[in-house]
Amino acid sequence: MPIPEFVARLREHVGRDLLWLPGVAAVVLRPSPVDGIDEVLLVQRADTLAWTVVTGILDPVEEPAVGAVREVLEETGVVARADRLVWAHTTPVVEFTNGDRSAFLSLCFRCSWVEGEPVVADDESVDARWVRVDELPPMSAGQLRRIELARANQPEAVFAT
What's the rounded mean pLDDT across residues 58-75? Predict the structure, then answer.
């Protein structure tokens, strides 16, 4: 996985110690062109082969919704629109294969498809595709929760209390 330049610079100072970083998750939905059932845009990560919604680290001072849309375009070539925040939460500590440790403030957005078909557009993924919500591959509970909250489309975001 490529490390954003600003994170690489931070790592020069803190080594492999825990970094707290702002992240986004984009649950991009569209109705199936065949039967109208929701489809969700998924990527298969290159490092773990896990299926996930599009996620990423915000650039310094980047607006979260802008960052979510940017990540979708960079990783899949799909143009999306961020509709609203559905979940703000912290992730467990992640230890990467190189020993770096991070935790993320994850801001999850419900997004709408605008145009484009998914392609693997960078080296972070090995696959990108639309998947019907009734045919999801095995995914972590956190990823499934993101999709559930985006599909529920409640007027308020979910926060841990």
Answer: 97
Backbone phi, psi, residue 134, to 5°: -90, 10
Distance CA 128, CA 45 (A): 9
Backbone angles phi, psi at 45, to 5 degrees: -65, 140
Q: Model confidence over 89-107: pLDDT tens digits?
A: 999 999 988 999 999 999 9
From the number of C-beta atoms within 10 Å of its C-beta (0-12, 13-18, 19+), residue 151 rates as: middle
**How many Å apart are CA 88 and CA 149, to the nearest integer?**
11
Provide φ and ψ at 127, rounded to 5°: -155, 150
Work out the widest C-alpha separation in the chain, in whole angstroms.
Answer: 53
| Integer Cα distance of 145 and 161 in angstroms | 17
Q: Tokens standing for 88? A: 């703000």
Contact of 41 with 128, CB cutoff 8 Å: yes
